[in-house]
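Regression test attached.
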Amino acid sequence: QKEVEQNSGPLSVPEGAIASLNCTYSDRVSQSFFWYRQYSGKSPELIMSIYSNGDKEDGRFTAQLNKASQYVSLLIRDSQPSDSATYLCAVKSSSASKIIFGSGTRLSIRP
Amino acid sequence: NAGVMQNPRHLVRRRGQEARLRCSPMKGHSHVYWYRQLPEEGLKFMVYLQKENIIDESGMPKERFSAEFPKEGPSILRIQQVVRGDSAAYFCASAGTSGSYQETQYFGPGTRLLVL
């Protein structure tokens, strides 16, 4: 079982709709959860971080965390073509210094 | 507003040569992480360093790879006797307050290594 799992996609969403990206993790003591966006040929860019159960909103982005289910998601409202990228879920355990990344979900917003 | 800097951005080496990748963390950051990304794959942790110390090298291949972060100067990821399978993008990330669960890592632009 991978430590951080994501559906590789591609996930195709019409412009203006809500894009929903999901991630599960295996380490129950994980404390920190991150979503990074990566455009093709570029470096990862931090979109959201979340540390406690529930929702965290920032503009068009909402991160949701459910530690009991070991599940974290990212919702993108009013999707724009510029949101087309690969979204990486990352998890940090309290017992380790490193961040473990999922393999990413490729999101495509169709006009 | 200097972010994380990496150089070179692109590096071409022939099999058997050495590759040296450099990373300068953001101002005020003293923690450096190296990741490798193969085409169409996620980021794989390689090593975590603080100034003059290797903290976690659990992701480093046992042979040919080494990393350092001297008291002065950038962090260096060194790959000896490169092979074609080393071709990848190598990203460096820096953080300022490792140990905090709220630590955020900021990524540099990466070095694309191509081994011919």
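Expected vs. actual: identical. The radius of gyration of chain A is 13 Å.
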